[in-house]
Amino acid sequence: MFTRKYLSIQLISLGIVVTGLLICALIHYFSSEISNAYSTKLPYISLGDNIKNKTTKGHLWFEELMSGDQGLNFEQDILALFTNSSIILEKAKDGGETELGAFGKTDNVDIKQSLTVALKDLDALIVLTKKRYELKQSRAKEEEEARLLAQKMALTQVMASTMPTLTALSGGIAQTNSLSAVQSQPVLADKSDAEANKIESAGGLLDQQFDEAYEKVQTDMDKIIEITNADIEKEHSRINKSIWLLLVIVFVIFGVMSLLNYKYQKRNQDFMESNKERLEHETDRLTKMKQFVNDISGGNFDATLDLDITNDELGSTLNNMRSKLKSNYEDDQRRNWMNIGLAKMSEILRTNDLTNTDKFYNDIISFIVKYLDANQGGLFILNNDHDYEEPYLELVSCYAYGKRKYLTKQIASGEGLVGQCYLEKETILMTEVPDKYTEITSGLGSKTPDFLLLVPLKVNDEINGVMEIASFKKMAAFELDFIHKISESISASVAGFKISVKTSRLLAQTQQQSAEMKAQEEELRQNLEELQATQEEFERKEREYIREIETLNAKLNNA
Fold it and tell me: What is the 3-state secondary structure (H, E, C) of 334-382?
């Protein structure tokens, strides 16, 4: 009896040990399965967003380059993004090591096929990018030739306008040459227009193909993300079923053992409850991870993953992935904000009528203050039109609480902060503004701003003015970068406007001088005619005097 009881106890103890080892092995197995499953899927989770971010960045920067942004390099800034994306896709397809992690060989046929299609579409995008850039270079060359042709035609027209004078001096030879030159202008213009239309047609087709290729790459990446999420969901469902199966096995084993010996039921029950708690905790852990991944996939980068287990490598990896995705998203938001602002400013500079300078300057400063959510702004333009006066900065427009203030203010070089900014050609940034320097006024009172920024309007190391912005909030680094970029565009537009005004003034002077020369020429011609008539009258009288003298001499001789 004792032996059988002892044997039963030994069997139960052995069963408990074996069951415990089995449970621990299964828990370790499923933990490893979960960790391995998510570790192999993590690179694919970030693959789609990474490629989309890089191709989107390359697309935006390429459009800026095509719009004339000289600060971008085609090979280093744009083509490198597309090429790096192609390398990542190629290594992901072959199961290689990348900056996103190690891509193992996947058995998912849909992912393999999607990677092949995405790689093909990305290569097509790279080819179209190169073609568009080469066409841009060709177009720039054609535009330069057209510009030289236009200058030649303008010179020919100027020569034609001065032909009457040249004709009077050279006897008609210059007139013949001018007519020949003028007659040749339509032929050259038609040829230039035909070539321009041909290039424009090719460029439009390439633009359409480039945008379609870009959209295909984005669609391919969305498909890869969708397939990866579905694969993770499937893996999670399989693991959940296995865990529940493990729970059933545990309950059955402890039920059989409880029937064998009621004495050890409580101990066995406690052991079962302990394992049940661990399994429930693991289930809760997986549920939290699933919800966390779903939140991130849905664009909620503020989602948090709180796990009770310390040193959870998978949870830490997921949190790091969230942080990187959030950082990339915020970078894209700031970049989009800057690109939209640059486009709007370019639209203002391009569409404004330069003959209405007040509206032109008011539109510029009003847009900048509103877009930066600042409070006040002023635009000082360099006035150096008079050679006999010292150049000075003139306040041409200001903005405060949506009301324009037409003030007359002139600042010499080195005078105050504005003059010092012009003199040093450097940005001045102040976070502690003097009390009486400027005040922002509203219906409730006035207050000194907390932030002051003075930016020189500089292009090619030439200063055309100074822009002053005052605000209650401090500007971020990307906002300061945006101001510096648009300051170059504004400076270039102001310089172009000054050149246009100066050219118009010189043209008017030239036309006036031409009219005066024509009047002097007519007066000279009349004087020559009068002189010729006087000379003929003098010769006639001289002949009469000679005849009278001869007659008198003859009479004297006869006498």
Answer: HHHHHHHHHHHHHHHHHHCCCCCHHHHHHHHHHHHHHHCCCCEEEEEEE
User: Following DSSP, what letter does each residue of 138-163 receive, concatenated?
Assistant: HHHHHHHHHHHHHHHHHHHHHHHHTH
Q: What is the pTM of this model?
A: 0.41
Angstrom CA distances, 199 to 133, 135, 205, stand at 13, 8, 10
Residue in the structure block whose two tokens are 């970029």: 485
Backbone φ and ψ for 178, nearest 5 degrees, come out as -60, -45
Note the pLDDT tens digit of each residue in 492-523: 888 877 777 677 777 777 888 888 888 888 88
| Separation CA 257–CA 249 (nearest Å) | 12
For 373, 441, 537, 548, the CA distances from 551, given in Å and listed in that order, are: 107, 106, 21, 5
Which has the closest alpha carbon to 50: 294, 295, 325, 319?
325
Q: Which of 72, 53, 55, 52 is nearest to 342 (CA)?
A: 72
**Structure tokens given for 431:** 């976070």
**Segment (H or E) for 64:** helix 2-66
Q: What is the pLDDT of residues 447-484, one digit of tens each?
A: 777 888 999 998 888 888 999 988 888 888 888 899 98
Cα gap 42→38, rounded to integer Å: 6
- Cα–Cα distance, 292 to 298 (Å, whole number): 10
pLDDT surpassing 80 at residue 100: no
Cα gap 511→387, rounded to integer Å: 22
Tokens found for residue 494: 């102001």
